[in-house]
Design goal:
The chain has 6 helices and 7 strands. The protein is an alpha/beta fold. It binds glycinamide ribonucleotide.
């Protein structure tokens, strides 16, 4: 069976959708106060949390992550709102096994504010992308993406909600495909 780990920094709504459909070996959050940890507790998913600032540098922080991933023999690392760039230490150990979801139609609007950036640019449509993680910011090979329209009556909130709904469809679809490969 493919062993999955999810990394998240925030609310964890994507984590919730994933954990309700697939067995997740563990959830990691780099934010000890993040609501995603509550979700993991409620779902009975093993969870860990530590912060970059608890370590001497990003290398030793990522070494701790690699140790966790190795210990659980993880096949696929699923980034779901994990708001840190994956550094060379983690990539060296797990490149080709890390995927990310981005709330825009890459290469349009990369970075931390994909939804707001698309909204401010006044696009008629944006989207959602799942991609492999490489050393760039949202530059890895695209696995699958979908378009999401911006409707004339949309507010930022309704637009954002439609993007999230598309994420909740797309990420499980991609994960279901990938778990067949391991
Ligand atoms: C999601 O919309 C995800 O695409 C985004 O963070 C949100 C996390 O929400 N990720 C990025 O912007 C990465 N650049 P969630 O914590 O409720 O799943």
């Amino acid at each position: 069976m493919t062993k999955l780990a999810v990394f998240a920094s925030g609310s964890g709504s994507n984590f919730q959708v994933i954990a309700e459909q697939f067995p997740v070996a563990f959830l990691f959050s780099d934010k000890p106060e993040a609501y995603v940890l509550e979700r993991a507790k409620n779902l009975g998913v093993t969870h860990y949390s530590f912060e970059l600032k608890d370590f001497a540098n990003k290398e030793t922080y990522e070494e701790a992550l690699v140790q966790l991933l190795d210990q659980h023999q993880i096949d696929l690392v699923i980034l779901a709102g994990y708001m840190k760039i994956i550094g060379p230490t983690l990539l060296a150990a797990y490149e080709g096994k890390i995927i990310n979801i981005h709330p825009a139609y890459l290469p349009e609007f990369p970075g931390a504010h994909g939804i707001e950036d698309a909204w401010k640019a006044g696009v008629k449509e944006s989207g959602v992308t799942v991609h492999w993680v490489d050393s760039g910011v949202d530059t890895g090979q695209i696995i699958k993406q979908v378009r999401v329209p911006r409707l004339p009556e949309d507010t930022l909130e309704t637009f954002e909600e439609r993007i999230h709904q598309a994420e909740y469809q797309l990420y499980p679809e991609v994960i279901a495909e990938l778990v067949k490969r391991f």
